[in-house]
Design a protein that fits this description.
8-stranded mixed β-sheet; 9-stranded mixed β-sheet; FAD/NAD(P)-binding domain; 32% strand; single chain; elongated; 10 helices; 20 strands; alpha+beta; binds flavin-adenine dinucleotide
Length: 371
């Protein structure tokens, strides 16, 4: 056996799981398709360290976030930015939640929530914003997080293959044989006892190529705009709840803000019906025309906060966002954890948000995998 564990996908989840096993003295190999780790969804996201507020339609997800929040802040103290004010605004009349309901929800999950200062309230259009609340929510610096994880993997002696694609996994006597195509097109075959498929939007590519049934997943091609916000709100993050609204959050790794819009951030969506074995996600990701929806986002958001008209567009972060179909209805963010799916020892993992990583570790332990 070449390795005890081979982890496929060097996003935050794959890195975390690699370190977890290496610290238990397992020989671990991490294989990442890009030439650097954390270059896909773990970088192309809104960098919000969730503290529950986002999920009034799924109290379980909100409560899990409340538990993970302090743990993540403590573990990644150097990668978390907290020196800004975070406001949650209640949109009306299109909103699905009233100010009263939002306050009650915050009380229920024990999340701090009080009336926002007048200067913020004065920036909003009272015809469309029913109430403004000050809350406690932070942002993570994805570049700092990557550097921290790289340091931790090096200390834990995790081996890495970058620019290498895991093409398939198959059973070979009582082990798993893993086929890796390296950047020079040469192929490496390695054996292991456990493979963790942490490839997020590409999960079904590996499953289908390995003869395992695909997992029903929904994908969206998303655009997150990166903007320079006006001075008045430079030290703020603003989320308008809960409907076809928008969110402006500090994006620490670029020193700017990200701008997402429920209506315009998803450009199109699809289900993994045939399993994605043909790499459809990646072809779509590489080939799509990338016509920005920034103007539509700006115009709509300025109806709620006119000052947002003055945002200066810098660039867009494009990513395939993958969620479980059931999250469509209740906006929940459970993890997907499929142990021994398709082959004994092949485990697939998908986290709906960065701090879900703690739920994944709990699931590994509950299943007694590799210990
Ligand atoms: C638009 C958007 C906004 C979001 N906002 C937030 C937010 O504010 N807060 C939050 O907590 N979460 C947010 N999320 C969710 C969060 O980004 C994800 O939960 C998290 O990044 C998933 O991490 P991962 O390691 O599973 O995926 P990734 O970071 O995508 O890692 C998967 C890796 O697998 C590699 N890979 C794929 N196939 C192969 C293969 N065959 N062989 C080798 N390598 C392979 C890829 O190159 C990639 O690096 C957002 C996501 C999106 C898309």
């Amino acid at each position: 056996m070449d390795y005890d564990v081979i982890v496929v996908g060097g996003g935050f989840f794959g890195m975390y799981i690699s370190e977890y096993f290496a610290r238990k003295n397992r020989r671990v190999l991490l294989v990442e398709r890009e030439t650097e780790c954390m270059r896909r969804a773990s970088y192309h996201n809104q960098a919000r360290v969730h503290n529950g507020y986002h999920y009034p339609r799924s109290v379980l997800t909100a409560l899990r976030s409340r538990i993970s929040f302090p743990r993540f802040i403590e573990e990644y103290n150097d990668c978390v930015v907290s020196d800004f004010q975070k406001f949650y605004l209640i949109g009306s009349p299109l909103g699905k939640i009233s100010a009263y309901q939002f306050q009650k929800f915050c009380e229920r999950i024990g999340a701090p929530c009080e009336a926002a200062p007048n200067w913020l309230r004065r920036l909003t259009n009272p015809h469309f914003i029913e109430a403004c609340f000050s809350t406690v929510e932070y942002a993570f610096d994805a570049s700092a997080l990557r550097d921290t994880m790289l340091r931790r993997l090096s200390i834990a002696s995790v081996e890495m293959r970058l620019g290498a694609v895991v093409e398939n996994v198959r059973q070979e006597s009582n082990l798993l044989a893993v086929t890796i195509r390296k950047s020079d097109s040469s192929v490496e075959e390695l054996t292991t006892a456990h493979v963790f498929n942490c490839t997020y939007s590409n999960i079904n590519f590996l499953l289908s190529n390995s003869g395992a049934a695909p997992i029903p997943l929904k994908h969206e091609m998303t655009e997150m705009c990166v903007v320079e916000v006006p001075d008045e709100i430079r030290q703020s993050g603003i989320t308008v709840m809960c409907g076809p609204f928008f969110s402006v959050m500090p994006f620490p790794s670029l020193g700017l803000h990200t701008f997402s819009h429920v209506r315009y951030t998803p450009h199109y969506e699809w289900m993994d019906e045939r399993g994605g074995a043909d790499g459809a996600q990646n072809r779509l990701f590489d080939a799509q025309p990338r016509a920005s929806a920034w103007e539509a986002m700006r115009k709509d958001a300025a109806r709620y906060i006119p000052l947002l008209n003055e945002c200066r567009y810098s660039q867009s972060l494009w990513e395939v966002k993958t969620v479980l179909p059931r999250s469509e209805t209740d906006d929940s963010r459970p993890i997907l954890f499929r142990a021994n799916h398709g082959l004994p020892g092949l485990h697939s993992v998908l986290g709906g948000k960065i701090d879900n990583v703690y739920d994944v570790v709990a699931a590994i332990e509950a299943n007694g995998i590799g210990l």
